[in-house]
Amino acid sequence: MADGRNPGVSRPERGDIRVEDLHLDRVVSSQPEIGPTPPDGGYGWLIVVSAMVYHVTVPALVTLYGLIILKAVRQDGHEDDEKIKIWDVDIALVPVICLVVKLLLESWSRAVVKVFNMPRFMALAGLCLTVAGVLLSSYSTDADSNDKIVNIFAGLFIGMGCALTGMQTEVILTIYFRDNLTIAQRLVRIAPSIGNCIVPIVVGYSLTKYTGDVVVMLYGAILMQNCFFLAAYTRPVYIEKVIRTTYRRIIDAGDDDDEIIFSNQSRSEPPTVTQVTEGPSTQEDPTDVVVFNSRINAKEILDPDVQQRERAISNERRFSSDFSGMYNDNNRFSSDFGTLDITSYSRIGPYQELENIDRDAQNPQPLYRETTVNAPDENLVFSSDMTVGTARRTAMLKKHFITVANMLVDVNFYLYTVLHLCTTFSTLVLLLFFPIFFWEKNPSLNIWGVTQMVTVAHGLALCFILLCVLLPQTFNHKARLCSACCVIGGAAFYGITLSNSMSFLVYWCIVAAASTTASSILQQPLYNSTLNEFSRTATITFANTIAAVCIIAWALMRNYFLNTCFLTASILQFFTAAVFFVASFRRQR
Fold first, then answer.
1. What DSSP designation does 132 have?
2. Where do the domains of the chain lie, and which CATH numbers do they carry?
3. Which tens digits make up the pLDDT trace of 322-336?
């Protein structure tokens, strides 16, 4: 009896009566202070594995087209002393257009993914677009082919597909993970480095057996196998379970049907049947308990005094529609205002208004006034031009303007943009042009020898890239670390332009690949340092647009030699390192 419970009353176990208790712990929320976050595991790791398989095969398309260009150049009868240019083969348009379109459509794809909320359909639709673009590009694999329109459309399809599936992957990871989100994102970002080790071997061996168009079609068939993994993309089951069970039961239950008060007055009766006592109880026990049991016909036992008061109140006429007795004490609510004199404050029965309020101006003042000179005085005026839609659009425009203004004065926006441009351009140059440049420096090698060297370089770089998972999750006070990675990457790209030996080229490729991937991983916490989701969307939109415009403008400006491409990447890496080193001295917020 110390705990205030009556042992004589049998209490059924709550787990046997309710399917699921309503606790705050089961209110799924994206904010930890409101409710719990997703479980950070379970089915979410299957999503991570599926995303990694997709990113192993699809981003390696750049390496595929680099080897296809190499085969086309070799078949064209390239001279040993002739320098290769980036537009010697028109199929080089495909990876460049694909990258630019992907950057431009990422923000729109993110909005589409969130609006439709169909993860499996969106991921598979993006995969189908990617495969369609790859198959379309198989018609332009020769050096003599002049199908620029086909290459442009192929790049458009691949870019749209990569943007749609990539954004769906990023969004679904944020749904399944909170605490382990950074680890999941980094595993997905490391997956393309694994693909750079596997794809060159597969494509290089296929090129020794088949022609370029057949190899491209075979790789499109390999990409199509991702449909089995992307089919795992689905909305979290636990969210639907909570909504369809717990909260649906609350709606269907009505007004507290689960709460039943069992009294000790009827101990001989089973606790599942209760009766309403009409008169005073013959026995009072202060140890009456409240248990929960789902009984449709259960009723509540009230205290006799409470019952009498309720019956007395129910006999009174609280609400009436009889407009003749407006000022009776028992009829306070009425809508008969025909005989009401609003200037006579003494006739307002129980609700006497304070006469000292607004004594000088008895007329009510307008709640809204028109801000023009021609507005009539002391009248409620609504502008005829302002509608609900106009007000909503005006508020949205103001919100966009404020967000862009805050973004332009934020240093993190410029840091993210510079680093995003640097990593994107460096990755494109390294994957697309390094196999061709390696063969240009060593023309005695065949395609299989080049693919072996490229695989060794990316494989050794992967050993260092795997350590990037241990990089800090926050970017504050880590600007110098990013600056060091960019300095190493700049030196590696410059070393590629100076080296002729195979061993030195492989070494510099290892360093360049590792440093570029590390900078890309450090880019994620810099992006997460923005204030809210709306600001992040604006940041990634402007940064992607700037990067896309710079890359396409640089690519179409002239037909560069391959040596110039690596030199440009080196200059961009050193510039990014200088920017981050200067930014490391600013006060971190």
1. H
2. 40-235 (1.20.1250.20), 254-313 (no CATH), 392-589 (1.20.1250.20)
3. 555 454 544 445 455
